[in-house]
Amino acid sequence: MTSSLTALALTCTLKPSPEPSSSDKIARQVLDELASHGVEGDLVRVVDFDVRPGVQTDMGGGDQWPRIRERILAADILLLSTPTWVGHPSSVAQRVMERLDAELSETDDQGRPSMYGKVAVVAVVGNEDGAHKIIADCFQALNDIGFTIPASGGTYWNSEAMVPKDYVELEQTPDAVATTNKKLASNAVHLARLLKQAQYPPVE
């Protein structure tokens, strides 16, 4: 019998709810694929919260990051979904990674950083190129923080060069994206189950 898993998608669009969001769309598609493996998932649109700049778990003064942090701590799989802006992740995604940096100082009773044993995957959408670089940058940051990255842990869609179009406008999901979403979900679940059964060794 395998342990149940949960996933949390943090979408880093610059558009507040209820505006349509390409980052939300691809994140929900990945959550649907995770659900096909029995993973219960939820989505948070970060821009809807007052997430203060800083590198502490709680910056005070009405900072709402602690509410999001609690949900990250409760999840086995984190999906970071971001649009592409001038070839980079959104400022919201950057802030999320900056706030997660505080987790390096948060450890369990065996000295492991708080995100050890959790899996992280990344989704990128954009009407310009840059997805590979964004995924690489996010992977490096998330791995530094303590998350584990599965094989084929990134999915993305970019519009045709010089022909701006948003992912949310597509009537059908391209086969390559759908296939990548499936592979990402399958590998993320496989890795999360392994880590649930055998956590990393204590930090000495």
From TrEMBL:
It comes from Saccharothrix tamanrassetensis. This is Multimeric flavodoxin WrbA. Pfam families: FMN_red (PF03358). GO terms for molecular function: oxidoreductase activity. Residues 17-151 form the NADPH-dependent FMN reductase-like domain. It comes from the Bacteria. InterPro entries: Flavoprotein-like_sf, FMN_Rdtase-like_dom. SUPFAM superfamilies: Flavoproteins.
